[in-house]
Amino acid sequence: MLRNIKYMLLVIAAITVTSCDDDFLETKPTDAISSADALATAENMALILNGLHRGLYSQSQTILPGGNTARAGEHFWVPMGDALGGGIIHSANANNLGWRTTAQWLDHTDQTSLTNEILWYHRYNIIASSNAIINKATDGSIPEDARLKEIIGQAYTYRAYAYLSLVQHYAKGYLIGSPSTDPGVPLLFASEAPYTSAPRSTVQEIYDQMRLDIDTAISYFEEATSRPTGSAAGKSQLNIDVAYGLKARIALNSGDWRTAADAAKIARANYPLMDETDWKSGFNTTLLPEVIWGSNVIDTETTFFRSYFYLMCNTFNGSQNRNNPKIADKRLVDAIPDTDYRKDVFLIDAPNTNTSAANGEGGWANNTNPLYTTEEEFNAAEVFYRDLYGWTSAHNEHPYMHVKMLQKNPGTIDPDDIIYMRSSEMYLIEAEAETMLNNIAAAQAALRPLGEARDSAYDPTIYTTQDALMDHIKFQRGVELWGEGFLYTDKIRWDEGIDHAANGGSGASQVLYQDGFQQERPSVNNNWIFKIPQAEIDANPNIGPGDQN
After folding, report:
1. What is the chain's percent helix, strand, coil content, to nearest 5?
2. Which residues of 144-173 are buried (b: 16+ CB within 10 A; e: fewer)?
3. Angle at CA 325, nearest 5°, toward 334 and 298?
4. Tell me, what DSSP letter sits at residue 225?
5. Which of 83, 287, 382, 521 could form a disulfide with 497 if both were Cys (CB 3.0 to 4.6 A apart)?
6. Residues 362, 355 contacting (CB under 8 angstroms)
7. Which of 279, 260, 45 is nearest to 152 (CA)?
8. Does the pLDDT value for residue 26 go beyond 50?
9. How far apart are CA 406 and CA 493, in angstroms?
């Protein structure tokens, strides 16, 4: 069925896999272990999990036949959410790697695109690997001690995570469609070749499976060994808090508001909100107190010029950033109160030094900022920001460029961690769910800790209606979670389109952005749904051309 599936085994420092491709099966690296051995003990199964952990951020050719260096797992998938949604804005035309094409909406709408194919097979690799663990670990042949229960809990959580990603990208949004009849994605329970699946299940069936998986994961975690604490590597492991966080996401995106609010409160309980120093430190480590789950990117698995920070961190020393500083939607930034320190990470008055800037205002000769009345002032501002944030003299600057994501070692190509889940998100999930239940006071109470931690003048009680609260929650998610990958799925849930021209404009160039400049809302626009890879249609007897989105 799925020609690129293989499950991942971590042995020593290498990810070694077996595949349904006969040619691939004929070779066995000297540091590999057999499938039977990999599933023989709890500790061997933990090696498969470690392969999944690393597979989240490894270059895809290391885990998928036909993979490509330009798609390095969550390094690409996380910022893709904000690039598609119009939150991370390209200020100039730069080298592509599919990143510009993504923002232009020319990528996910093409069934032959690298993005559609690798995201699909990456998620099904996670599912197949999880199936291998679940099917063996629950067959009664290995005693279910606390360690094995931890491993089983992680496998069920991973499977739910992968299905959530698939159904949110390759199917119509739950809240804007007809989930009982809308086609979702295939359910896969096989753990070895030929990985035969059913045809596309409905969106409802996929959500039902996710709910079952995540509740099963939680039940196993309740009697499992605890996740290691005190290290960035420890937070790459999934635990009961991650499971509750995913439960909250699943519920939020399917309108199960009570469950979403309750699960979010549990998920965040052990992760205190960051203070201003931590929040401005660069979002480059999973050791930040808010982080519930993230990848600790190790040196041996760095992706250099394919990384999350390469794609959107303005201090990274790569041409994607030097020539194309990423900016935020100026309508969002301008709405942030001056009493909110998050406004500081968007450099409104950075000089536009890029003579190739898409807005045609780059260089002193085209300066439009009245703050700079002389070329000397303009040049001095450039040096000021460079010295403050550590980018090189080859880096360009641009108004509204961000410094939210900063490298530990700015101006280098060093790897940094990828954050997937924070307690701030959980506060915002709770607030949105309570708002949708029209529990005004409860929504205000959920917003208060986060808002007061960020804004010295914050008062949630001024938002007294459901509509006012929802508008404010959208704003808070836009600011707090900017660049962390949520905007695409948020807009689908809220049924909101993209219009970079409205209300004074976002700062994006229509010439550069092409189809991504304006998109009608998802409920009436199937371009929001990723195309099923043509390779899957060609290989899967249960999916034909008529099943294409």
Report:
1. 50, 10, 40
2. beebbbbbbbbbbbbbbbbbbbbbbbbbbb
3. 110
4. P
5. 521
6. yes
7. 45
8. no
9. 30
How far is the C-alpha of 278 from the C-alpha of 341, rounded, in Å? 12
Q: Is the pLDDT of residue 195 over 80?
A: no
Tokens of 484: 């962390």
Pairing of β 401-402 and β 418-422: unpaired
Is the pLDDT reported for residue 307 higher than 90? no
pLDDT reported for residue 449: 98
Could you tell me which of 371, 286, 331, 318 has the C-alpha nearest to residue 508? 331
- Structure tokens given for 517: 């400049």
Measured over the CA atoms of residue 397, residue 333, residue 278 and residue 90, the dihedral's sign is: negative
Higher pLDDT, 397 or 37: 397
Pairing verdict, β 326-328 and 88-90 = antiparallel
Mean pLDDT of the chain: 90
C-beta of residue 292 within 8 angstroms of C-beta of residue 5: no
Question: Considering only CA atoms, which of 217, 242, 216 is closest in space to residue 295?
Answer: 242
Q: Which amino acid is at 218?
A: I
AA letter at 526: N
Q: Look at residue 126 and tell me whether its pLDDT is greater than 80.
A: yes
Reported as a pLDDT band with limits 50, 70 and 90, residue 74 is: confident
Q: What are phi and psi of 190, to 5 degrees?
A: -70, 150
DSSP string for 271-291: -PPP-HHHHTS-S--TTSTTE
Using pLDDT thresholds of 50, 70 and 90, give the confidence band for residue 98: confident
Four-point Cα dihedral 284, 287, 292, 293, nearest 10: 60
**Given this model, what pLDDT does residue 72 score?**
76
Please determine, for residue 197, whether its predicted confidence score (pLDDT) is greater than 80.
no
Q: Work out the burial of residue 318: count CB atoms within 10 Å of its CB; fewer than 13 is exposed, 13-18 middle, 19 or more buried.
A: buried
Interhelix angle 146-170/42-55, nearest 10 degrees: 30
Q: Kindly state the average pLDDT of the residues 114-133.
A: 92
Distance between CA atoms of residues 115 and 67, nearest Å: 10
d(CA 91, CA 395): 13
Cα dist. 86→90, 92, 197, 351, 509 in Å?
A: 9, 15, 35, 22, 11
What's the rounded Cα separation, in Å, for the pair 422 and 433? Answer: 17
Question: What is the mean predicted confidence (pLDDT) over 428-438?
Answer: 98
